[in-house]
Amino acid sequence: MWIVALVFAVLLLSGTAFAYLMGAVSVVSFLVADKAPYLSILPQRIFAQLDVFAFMAMPLFILTAEIMSRAGVTRSLIDFALSLVGRFRGGLGHVNILTSVFFAGISGSAVADSAALSRTFVPAMAERGYDRVYAGAVTAASSMIGPIIPPSIIMIIYGGLTGASVAALFVAGVVPGLLLAAALMLLNAGIAHWKGHPGGSNEGMPRFWPSLLRAAPALCLPVVILGSLVFGFATPTEGSALAVLCALAAGSFYEGIRFRMLVEALEATARLTGTIFIILAAISVLGYLAGQMGWSQALAGWVESFGLTGTRYLFFLLAVFLIAGMFMDTPVALSLLVPLFAPQALAQGIDPVHLGIVLSFNLCIGLITPPLGKCLVVVAALTGVNYWRLAVATLPFVAVQVLLLAALAYWPELSLALPRAFGFSVN
User: How far apart, in whole angstroms, are the C-alpha atoms of residue 427 and residue 353?
Assistant: First the structure.
């Protein structure tokens, strides 16, 4: 196996893209394990990994987010959030978090949310007397709401890998996402009173009804997506196509639809979709080898030898995925670790929807923790804030998120009550 480790280290240090690195390491692993004859089946295995109906929704939801982010929706959402919570002490911090909730129903991506809001909120908060580092920390921490509230790209990936209902996952993500927003706003309120952050004046706040009418087309998008799934009008794939149509209609309302903009949105969608799919293809090769070598069975035996069952096994997974999220991109960690660890969890009776919410939430925390912390990188790059100072300022928000993650893992009803109420099949 030293050959595999050497190939991995050389490719990693050379800056090889992760998909090619994993593909090369997997092929070398087949040769080292004397499984070379099985390499002829790899094209079929890769196609089987990607030939999942749920994955068809992914590019359309990405396209929806690209259209909405280019259509001038940001200002209307910020004004509406200001009209709701801008008057309180630490109001701009609350507005930052609430705007992330609104954006979550559009983009489904934490990195996209942090990029869209960094340029707007950090300078605005600094002008009102906030420390720039703290403003960046709030922006990075609140962007994690993006993949939790539907639509969510990582939940689509999880559903495709495990066969769990994507519609049920979307519905189950609503309560955890809102709980996360509430927890962050409570923490922001405490810090605002401690540090004396300013509150907004009534004169400078947008009026509620005009701002609501202006933001209504954007706010209707998540309602349409969830409504079509909850009431059985559409599958997630059909709902994603409906979301694109709604995004085009909303973009026309905001007068942001241009031919060049649509071309750029399609190009960005193709790049991101291709990136995700090639990673899934490369990791499927390693997954096939894992099946041939019996790694899952060995892992199950190891878990049983330590008596890790039920809730204890779930908390063990939290630790594994929390560490993985610090070093791996979220789709990479999800597609690499879920096939390895999820079967044991499901065999022990853990509901697949509950597991999906917990693992998705878990990996998203890695987006704001060093050394990778993609949202930290984006915010630091766009605002000029020092990365490590930003990481330190984000720690209180990370602590709150970890506590909420533990609560979600211990009380499945926090995730499952809503999908159960709407008739989805959950334990």
Answer: 9
Sign of the C-alpha dihedral computed for residues 122, 125, 129 and 130 taken in this order: negative
Distance CA 159, CA 161 (A): 5
Cα–Cα–Cα angle for 48, 53, 54, nearest 5°?
110
- For residue 219, give the nearest of 120, 106, 52, 109 by alpha carbon: 106
Q: Where are the alpha helices (DSSP H) in 206-258?
A: 208-230, 236-253
CA atoms within 13 A on the CB side of 188: 30
**CB contact at 8 A, 360 and 324:** no
| 156 vs 163: CA distance, rounded Å | 10
Task: Kindly tell me if the per-residue pLDDT of 202 is higher than 70.
Answer: no
Average per-residue pLDDT for the chain = 87
User: Which SS3 state, helix, strand or coil, does residue 258 take?
Assistant: coil
Give the span between the Cα atoms of 151 and 174, in whole angstroms. Answer: 10
**Does residue 203 register a pLDDT over 60?**
no
Counting beta carbons within 10 angstroms of the beta carbon of residue 251, is it exposed (0 to 12), middle (13 to 18) or buried (19 or more)? buried
pTM of the model: 0.89
Residue 3 has pLDDT above 80, yes or no: no
Supply 215's token pair: 């933001």
Over residues 215-221, the mean pLDDT reads 89
Q: Which of 198, 191, 182 is nearest to 86 (CA)?
A: 198
Q: What is the pLDDT of residue 75?
A: 82
Convert 54-111 into a string of H (helix), E (strand) and C (coil): HHHHHHHHHHHHHHHHHCCCHHHHHHHHHHHHCCCECHHHHHHHHHHHHHHCCCCCHH
